Amino acid sequence: MLGDAAPIDVLRAVVHLATEIGREGREGQPIGTILVVGDTRKVLSLSRFQNFNPFRGYSRAERDVRKRDVREQIKEIAKLDGAILIGRDGIAEAACLHLGARGDGVNVRKGFGSRHMAAAGVSKQTSAVAFAVSQSSGSVRVFQNGEEVLHIEPLARPHVWQPFKLETQEPPEIEETKDEVS
């Protein structure tokens, strides 16, 4: 099933990445994204770039999602609009992709928006697996063949402590008065 889309070590790395994005967001702010794994040529043929491709010009080793430092960089890129495309070999190929796959014949439950519809649609029209990370809840839904095949609820999102200021009261200024002696 999922193992047909990519080797298990690649899928494990992407699941880990998706759940970290869902749980942690980035710099204390929740973010949502789509990670698409496999069938890169077909996915690219159905998509268009919304921005520059941040992976262009980097070596394969610098784009391998099985490496922790690469996953950290992808978390930063996930803040940008658009999907992130990862080859079945675990190499990040493209980001900032507008997925143009149609949602015909895809049934996404009520309450899910365009991110989940796009993930389901691209998984239906290609042999790729799509991971939709919800910005509002942090949950990860995995789509294959247009169907939700896995739902992962991340552990509770950490509380982000906000800086606080101590308010101090200045003592009121005392006006000095001189008593004049007459």
Keywords:
YojJ-like (1, single chain, 7 strands, globular, 182 residues, alpha+beta, seven-stranded mixed β-sheet
Describe this structure in words.
By secondary structure, this protein is of the alpha+beta class. Strand 6 and strand 7 form a beta hairpin. A 7-stranded mixed beta sheet has the order 2-4-3-1-5-6-7, with helices on both faces. The chain has a single domain, classed as YojJ-like (1 (3-Layer(aba) Sandwich). Helix 1 crosses helix 3. It contains 4 helices and 7 strands.
Q: What does the overall shape look like? A: globular
What proportion of the residues form beta strands (DSSP E)? 15-25%
Q: How many strand units?
A: 7
Q: Structural class of the helix and strand makeup?
A: alpha+beta
| CATH topology type | YojJ-like (1
Query: What would you report as the Rg, rounded to the nearest angstrom?
Result: 24 Å
Distance between the first and last residues' Cα = 104 Å
Q: List low-pLDDT spans.
A: none
What's the CATH C level?
Alpha Beta
Order of helices and strands: HEHEHEEHEEE
What's the arrangement of strands in the largest beta sheet? Answer: 2-4-3-1-5-6-7
Instruction: Provide the domain count.
Output: 1
CATH architecture: 3-Layer(aba) Sandwich
Biggest sheet statistics = 7 strands, mixed
Number of helices: 4
Mean pLDDT: 84
- Helical coverage, percent range: 10-25%
**Superfamily (CATH H level) name:** DNA integrity scanning protein, DisA, N-terminal domain
